[in-house]
Design brief:
Length: about 240
């Protein structure tokens, strides 16, 4: 029989926050992730802490892909904030947002709403604008992939790696996280070699991407160059 006692540890949460959460719609996964964030921050009298998706999987029992999606939802809602690898709870509940209703736009230009109604939204100039934006998006995806592939030590299976990259379609913040994780792994491997410890080989870039390995790398306290710096300056020497 469980006999929890506050003498064994407790987490302090202001009543005003509890009352705000009473009025906030949260999914089951969002609630469980929030409790994990509180446990690792407020539970240790800290405002923020480094939390990887692997840690959250172990703490909550939620599958990795659901943890990743739920964190993104909480970030979009501004309930949770992230600075590098550190996660914190945004206690200013006036800044919290509801998630927008999901709308899917197909390649043929049809909008599928939550009720299943379809309507063609792209005709004439609107369709041209859509195609132009899509071309620009493909171009930026190609540029960000080139940054990743040049930074990755193993240059094999480029087409498979590009396919994996397009599957994730990372935004600039995620590109930065991936590039930082690569640098962290390089430093860690150099440390292992220097200490004479066993140093595992680099996997194929597609394998590294499909396994979301960037979420498990050890963070380092160092200023990193952002992908926007390379896009804006035309640099390709990463």
């Amino acid at each position: 029989m469980a006999r929890p006692q506050i003498e064994n540890g407790y987490t302090r949460i202001a009543n005003e926050l509890i009352e705000a959460l009473m009025r906030t719609n949260l999914s089951a996964y969002q609630s469980r992730i929030l409790w994990a964030v509180w446990r690792e921050t407020y539970g240790f009298q800290k405002k923020e802490d480094w939390l990887s998706n692997s840690q959250l999987v172990e703490m909550t029992g939620i599958r990795k892909q659901h943890v990743s999606r739920t964190i993104k939802e909480l970030l979009t809602r501004n309930i949770v904030t992230k600075s590098g690898y550190k996660v914190s709870f945004n206690k200013d509940y006036t800044q919290w947002r509801e998630l927008p209703k999901q709308v899917t736009v197909t390649n043929s230009g049809y909008k599928v709403t939550s009720t299943g109604v379809k309507s063609n939204q792209f005709r004439g100039t609107q369709k041209k604008k859509y195609n132009k934006e899509r071309t620009l998006s493909d171009s930026r995806t190609s540029e960000s992939f080139d940054l990743f592939y040049k930074a990755f030590p193993k240059h094999e299976g480029k087409q498979q790696a590009l396919k994996a990259w397009k599957k994730f379609n990372p935004d600039p913040s995620l590109v930065q996280q991936i590039l930082e994780a690569l640098e962290n792994r390089k430093i860690h491997k150099a440390h292992l070699k220097g200490s004479g410890q066993f140093c595992p080989e680099w996997p194929l870039p597609a394998t590294w991407l499909n396994g979301k390995r960037w979420e498990d790398e050890i963070p380092i306290e160092a200023k990193q160059t952002t992908p926007e710096d390379y896009f804006s300056n035309g640099r390709d020497d990463l």
